[in-house]
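not sure who needs this but someone in the group chat was asking about G-protein coupled receptors family 1 profile domain-containing protein from Caenorhabditis nigoni so here u go. i didnt clean anything up, its just raw.
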Amino acid sequence: MYMIQYYSPNFLNNLKSILRCNCVMQFITLFIACSLQTRQVSNLTPIEIWCYGYVKHFDPTILYSFYFLSQSTTLASVLLIFLTIYLKFDAVRNMNKSSNQKYIVTFILIIPVVVVTGLTIQVFLPIICYLPMFIYLFIVIETKVESLFEQYFIGVFSTFPSLLDSYITLYSVKTYRKQIKIAFKLEKAEQPIQVAAIASQM
C-alpha cells in the first residue's frame, strides 16, 4: 500500500485505486487462510470444510462466514487483475491512432508473444493455480474417491495467487523495485542536485 501510494509511476495513476483495492482483498484472503487452515473434504455429501487454524474453536457459522469471505475476496482479487487488462485496452481504444494501429497495440497487450511481463504472469497465475485443481476437485466429487492431496492443497492453491501477486507487482514495476533496492542498501538513493546561482560582484 505504501509503494502504491507514494511510488507509483505516472502511467499507474488511473489504476491506483484498483491496486489499493486488490491489495486489501489479498490481505484479507491471506489473513483468513492462515487463520482457518481449511481442509475441504470433497468426497463426502455434502462437502465438508474442516478447520485446523487457531480460530477452530469459534462457532461453525462464524468459521463458514470467514471461509465464504475468503473465497469472495479471492474471486474479487482475480477479477481486479483482469480489470486492469480491460482498462489498458480502453486506454488504447481512446488513442488518436488508426484502427489498424489500435488492433496491433491491443494484440500486444492481450497476447504477449515475445516478452513475458508482470501483468502477463499476474493474469495467468490464477488460471495455472485454479484450473488443474478444480478439474481434480470435479473428478473427486464425481467419483467420491478420497484424496488427501485435494483436501489439503485446494486451500493452498486458491490463495497462492494472492500471496505471489504483490511480489510480482513489486518486481515488475520499476519504481517499486528501485525503492526496495534502496531500502536494502543494494542501490543508492539519487540525491537531488542543488543548483546555486552565483551572483557576480561588481
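also The mean pLDDT is 79. if thats useful
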